[in-house]
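Good morning,

Attaching, inline, the backbone tokens for the sequence recovery test we're adding to the shared suite. The designed sequence is right after.
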């Protein structure tokens, strides 16, 4: 069994309030959960309007499959979020 985790930092230039940020956060989390069935949650920077930090975890029976899933999730967020992915740890 392989467990991979990543911390993704996104910049939301259009967010003027925590309410705007919440809309982006909920959209990204719902899309990732629906498409990949991965664990995802906001893990840091809750008080900042334009910065969203998400933690993502993937569990798989094979290390290669887990890495492929994580890469797909990162690409999916890059392409489908109303935010700019600025850092992945």
């Amino acid at each position: 069994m392989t467990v991979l985790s990543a911390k993704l930092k996104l910049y939301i230039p259009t967010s003027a309030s925590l309410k705007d940020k919440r809309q982006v956060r909920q959209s990204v989390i719902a899309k990732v959960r629906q498409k990949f069935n991965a664990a995802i949650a906001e893990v840091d920077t809750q008080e900042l309007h334009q910065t969203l930090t998400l933690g993502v975890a993937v569990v798989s029976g094979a290390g290669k499959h887990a890495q492929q899933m994580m890469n797909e999730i990162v690409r999916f967020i890059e392409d489908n979020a109303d935010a700019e992915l600025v850092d992945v740890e």
